[in-house]
Amino acid sequence: MVSGPRGLWGSRVGFVLAAAGSAIGLGNIWRFPTTVGRSGGAAFVLTYLLCVLLIGLPIMLAELAIGRRTQRNPVGAFAALAQGSLWRLVGGLGVVTGVGILSYYSVVAGWTIGYFLNDAGGAFANLPSEEYVKQAFLSLISNPTMTLSLHAVFMAFTMAVVLGGVKGGIERAAKVLMPVLLIILLLLVLRSVTLPGASVGLEFYLKPDFSKVTFATVMEALGQAFFSLSLGMGAMITYGSYLSRQANLFSSALWVVGADTAIALLAGLAIFPALFTFPGLSPAEGPGLIFVVLPNVFDKIPGGMVFGAGFFILLLIAALTSSISLLEVPVAYLIDERGWTRRQAVLALGALAFALGVPSALGQGAVGWLTSLPGLGVSFLDAMDTLFAKYSLTIGGLFLALFVGWRWGVEPALDEIAFVRASRFNRVFFRILLRYICPLAIAVILVNLALSSMTP
Ligand code: PHE
């Protein structure tokens, strides 16, 4: 058992819920449909599932194993397993990435607060037209006072929970209300697939057209898998570090990956059939997709106002159980490695992430050049998302796989995962995945993407 001042999860169930809480969030309900819509539908969904199984699951196990073995934050963990080496820079990349993602994550989560207020206030009841919600969305996100206050409120929530420490704050928050979110989501799916004309959307979402798969889409799928599973930046190292020695990592990881994937697939099933029945909306809508489509679906459900308000407040809670893991990584680093108190670390990093999120908040119409960055043509938020979710996480994942496969060793990792009861086949399979398949696949995708972006 662990001694010393580090917190521990109250129970294995508590850990699984907290890790699932980290995984399930805006990544599933906001980013997954957005990326599916931009990347052409069903073929992307299949590519995504492959990435989750072949790359996501082994890397999740690797992160949890590193975390529990070392009982440290990502930087300290790499330093402990490979003393005096440069591997700790991989942990450092994770710490930076946590702050980077948190900055715009909080902006989008702020929109869900705005939507909760709108729904509860009746603004989305008896909609005059589908277009109406789009206009309401645009006026919300382009209003600087509004978006900045909502961003500030969400960041304050996140900081408050992380201040509470591991068991009191994070675990308790994670245990609340997630099943209710699932129920409302199922209701949405039911309504969406039974709308007249839903089959067009179902086809888009479920019938793959493989001519649409390019290296660019594979890269999107991989980035989405890392983002959605909270991988590649050490969040799972950090959560694993608060885990007691008894828990079986393999079954915990399976639960987390299964739940995360199920919620993402359901979110797509709620969005796409409905989307195609509304004229004037395109699947490639971008970050506003769910915010435009969902109120229209709720409007077609009896009691939609209540369900809508319920949905957005639960989405907010799901986002919160993710954002706390984004903040916990750099906080754990400052506490463990730099001797800061939890309070100092939370205040400083929360303020930093807030400031870094300001251009993302203002770049949705309030400030022109942030809305369409000169030379790039995308918004500041989109650019941050590409930089951190697509590149930083996958590069982190590449090094994680290399580290466990070739430096720390697959055997000690397997021992930590407690594969004792797993078959020989599983052991061999895991070894091949971590040593060869994961690093090679990620490297090939990254290199191809770099090459294709160099050729005009
Ligand atoms: N997985 C979270 C979500 O889906 C986001 C996240 C990414 C959290 C990386 C931690 C680390 O919303």
Describe the structure.
With 456 residues, the chain is mostly helical. The chain has a single domain (12-454), classed as Hydantoin permease (Orthogonal Bundle), CATH 1.10.4160. The chain has 20 helices and no strands. The protein has helices spanning 12-23, 26-38, 42-70, 74-81, 88-120, 130-141, 144-163, 166-175, 178-193, 198-206, 215-228, 235-241, 249-275, 289-298, 304-338, 342-362, 368-371, 380-408, 410-417, 424-454. Helix 1 (12-23) packs across helix 15 (304-338), helix 3 packs antiparallel against helix 13 and helix 5 (88-120) packs antiparallel against helix 18 (380-408). The longest helix is centred in the last third of the chain and has 35 residues, at 304-338. The chain is globular. The termini are far apart. Mean pLDDT is 89; it is low at 1-5. Bound molecules: phenylalanine. Phenylalanine binds at residues 22-23, 25-28, 101, 227-228, 230, 233, 235, 322, 325-326.
Q: Taking Cα atoms only, what radius of gyration do you get, to the nearest Å?
A: 21 Å
| CATH topology annotation | Hydantoin permease
Mean pLDDT: 89
Class computed from helices, strands and strand pairing: mainly alpha
Question: Topology as H/E string?
Answer: HHHHHHHHHHHHHHHHHHHH
What's the CATH C level? Mainly Alpha
Helix count, per DSSP? 20
Query: Given the C-alpha coordinates, what overall shape results?
Result: globular
Question: Alpha-carbon distance between the termini?
Answer: 56 Å
In the CATH hierarchy, the architecture is Orthogonal Bundle
β-sheet strand percentage = under 5%
Per DSSP E runs of 2 or more residues, the count of β-strands stands at 0
- Taking pLDDT < 50 over at least 5 consecutive residues as the criterion, the unreliable ranges are 1-5
